[in-house]
């Protein structure tokens, strides 16, 4: 964001990086300016924002007020798929490196789901000391049917055909069906760490447009 000292691959900036890569792809790989901007951005993200936790989880932090906050948002989990999609055509023949980086991000985001009571991921999760891939603040423990983790599973499945990505997607699908389905459709939940969740009574538009789309594509 240009008006506050906050750099993120999640909210405020995620679509910019995604669309640089997709502008290049939609141009049949002729928009070299878009590809250069994407490569520059990815190199900067890797240099300044990507870290590995003590427990070996690779995450994308957020730069705030001159220091790196060891917190990753659910929105930033889309980047695993972006790194995989952008691997082909990357500089210095680093396609394998970026595919592996995408896989590491996917694993971290899966852990954020797996470490909850509902097997659904929180809005954001921290990597502070003994706490890894877990939300700390109550205001970050909700799941509102977001697609980014399932989106990354889909890209990794398409590029690697590793069955774990279908399995992880199926785990999420079952959890959504079990905990988010309500009489009128599907609802977000307020605390993924509570085995008796409270619904927020909202079905977000992106649930149909993205979450179910990527699940459908993964099993088609």
UniProtKB/TrEMBL annotation:
Pathway(s) annotated for this protein in UniProt: Protein modification; protein glycosylation
Single GO MF annotation: calcium ion binding
Covalent S-S links between cysteines: 77-109
Keywords annotated in UniProt: Disulfide bond, Glycosidase, Hydrolase
One BP term from GO: carbohydrate metabolic process
InterPro entries linked: 6hp_glycosidase-like_sf, Glyco_hydro_47, Glycosyl_Hydrolase_47, Seven-hairpin_glycosidases
EC number(s) recorded for this UniProt protein: 3.2.1.-
Cofactor: Ca(2+)
GO CC field: endoplasmic reticulum; extracellular exosome; Golgi membrane
Family per record: Belongs to the glycosyl hydrolase 47 family.
Name of the molecule in the record: alpha-1,2-Mannosidase
Source organism: Loxodonta africana
Gene from which this protein is expressed: MAN1A2
